[in-house]
Every structure is written in structure tokens, then in C-alpha cells.
Amino acid sequence: MKTIGITGGIGSGKTLITRILSAMNYPVYIADLASHRLVHTNIEIMNGLTALFGKNIYECGILNKKLLADGIFGNENLRKSVNNLIHPVVMQDFKDWCEEQNADVVFMESAILFETKLNVYVDKTILVIATLDLKIKRLKQRENLTETEIRNRINSQMSDEEKMKLADYIIINDERQAVLPQVEEIINQL
Q1: Which of 23, 53, 94, 138 could lock onto 11 through a cystine, CB 3.0 to 4.6 A?
Q2: Roughly what angle, to the nearest 10 degrees, separates helices 43-53 and 76-100?
Q3: Pairing of strands 105-109, 2-7
Q4: Do the Cβ atoms of 5 and 113 come closer than 8 Å?
Q5: What domains, with CATH codes, occur in the chain?
Q6: Which pLDDT does position 30 carry in this prediction?
């Protein structure tokens, strides 16, 4: 089984690519969804977040996402601590998920695949890129964030230029170039 990592900065359009792959009947593991599940079910993560943020990080067993986001966006050390806590558990969950799949190729989507070094666990990587203006536009449409909050989130991630040096394949999602032919070309190469 080949494992392919899909990554890209926030607002780049990774979700579109994963939807296309799912429609093509490829199994797709969404690391962000898995981490949302695991922060509420994995005792190691829950204890670690409580140690980092205090008992208010969970309210009635529900993660206080705002407190978490306010803490990690703008605080590199805290963000790394949270990633080091969550991502090994997510990676094990991905490995367990892979064992349940009956496919020659599976995909894992993670916005911070390179930042957290999860790319070493996949065979190939696909980077989805978009212009900064387009990312901001997309985030304004789907999130209730200020432009400053959006820029802080974008700036907390590795730049597209850095990621391009590490990626095996690149999909340009600029709303001018069709993405389906780009996805199909990568699938053919795989």
C-alpha cells in the first residue's frame, strides 16, 4: 500500500482535493478531524493539554478551542509542545486506519505535514498552493476571524516556498487552473 500525504497552508484548498480523491474512491484520512476526535478521547492528549493550559482547557469535557488557538497562534514554543503531544497519537491512529483499508493507495491530509515531520511516514507528498490573497479571501468566507487572526495563522505555518522544496507533487489551486486534471496526472504517476 502506498501512503500519500496531502498538505498546504490554511486556505489553500486541501479540502477540495480530498473531496476529489474521495469521489474517485480513494481512502482519505483527514488528520485534522482525527485530532479533533482524539483531543476528546485520548487520555494522554487530554492530560497533556491540561498540563500545558490548565484545567480550563476543557469545559465539561469539551476542548476550549478558542483558548487553545489563542495560546498556540503567536507562541511558537507552546505550538510545538501541543504538536509534539498530539501528532504522534494522530500518526499511530493513521497507521491503525491504514491497516483497515483495502486499497493500493491511501491519502492522509495534514495542513502541517512538513512542520510536524509526519511526511517521513508517507511515501510521497502533494502540496496544494494558492496565492495569499486567495487564502485570505477563502478564510474570510468560511471562518469568523479578523484579517489579523488569519494572517497570524498563515504566518504560523511553513511558507509555500519552503514546502515546495519538500513536496513530490504540487497542485495549483488558484481558481484559474483546473485542479481535476492535476489530480488525475498525479494519480497516473503514482
Answers
A1: 138
A2: 170
A3: parallel
A4: yes
A5: 2-32+90-189 (3.40.50.300)
A6: 96
